[in-house]
Design brief:
The protein is built from five helices and 18 strands. The chain is of the alpha+beta class.
């Protein structure tokens, strides 16, 4: 009588939870900002005067914890240096895009522009940020007015708003909740999962806890880790294996991502007539 190896089904369940640090493109880290009772201190840099054809206006380069920031209500006065203000996180997608793709942002669309000066890039981003946040385009001006005097800033605004909303996601095989079944590998005489790819940016990583006798094989790196903790970077492809004697289901439980930021505008609320 021919003996048949009966494979006991085994399930590897990976749950991915993105525990992100909220970062801001105004541009500072909320965790650092919140130390002083929900207030921040900001300092001013160089004053930037609008070109004469834009009117008798000016703004100042603003820094929060040394990071570049923008005034969001262009027609109001600039607050005094070293002042503090309460802040809120604004769920404003248009503003988020301006700060993310504008001058000084992570995906600065001005980066390849060798004609426009850095001061002008800052000024244009300031105007777009103010418009996105409050509709205030310094003195109730409009896109039509800017175009009438030869300023094509509306095209840059449209470009930025057409770009995707900045997000940093983390998935396994493009799934937030991946469940895979192990199969019998007749060559290695083990049970293993299909190949799994961590979909996120390459400098982000997760630490995957492994139960006893479960091995993570990192195909990308050519390494393997048995039991304990295994680190997987964004873009890595791996699979899990175990001896046939292991029959318990495996679940990673919640995972924490490292070096993965979630971007959100940080709006510093002014007071009185200050922006």
């Amino acid at each position: 009588m021919k003996k048949t190896l009966k494979k006991i089904p085994k399930f590897f369940t990976i749950f991915a939870l993105l525990l992100s640090i909220i970062s801001t493109s105004l541009i500072t880290n909320v965790n650092a900002v919140s130390q002083a009772g929900n207030t921040v201190n900001f300092t001013w840099g160089e004053e930037i005067y609008y070109p004469k054809w834009l009117g008798n206006w000016s703004t100042k380069m603003c820094y929060i914890d040394g990071n570049l920031a923008y005034c969001l209500e262009a027609s109001k006065d600039t607050p005094p240096a070293n002042a503090s203000a309460y802040y809120v996180i604004s769920n404003n997608e248009a503003l988020l895009k301006v700060l993310y793709y504008g001058y000084g942002g992570p995906e600065d669309v001005f980066r390849g522009d060798t004609v426009t000066s850095d001061k002008e890039k800052y000024l244009y981003t300031h105007i777009m940020a103010s418009y996105a946040y409050s509709g205030d385009m310094y003195g109730n001006n409009s896109w039509e007015y800017l175009e009438s005097i030869g300023v094509g800033l509306k095209a840059r605004w449209d470009q930025i708003q057409s770009l995707p909303i900045p997000t940093n996601t983390l998935t396994f095989n493009n799934s937030n909740d991946l469940t895979v079944s192990a199969y019998f590998d007749s060559n290695e005489k083990i049970q293993r999962t299909e190949n799994i790819t961590l979909n996120t940016k390459s400098d982000a990583s997760i630490t995957l806890p492994l139960q006893d006798n479960v091995t993570l094989h990192n195909i990308t790196k050519g390494t393997s880790t048995t039991s304990g903790n295994a680190t997987v970077n964004g873009g890595d492809t791996f699979y899990l294996s175990a001896p046939l004697t292991v029959t318990e289901n495996y679940s990673s439980d919640w995972l924490t991502a490292n070096n993965l930021l979630k971007y959100a505008p940080l709006v510093i609320q002014g007071y009185a007539n200050y922006q």
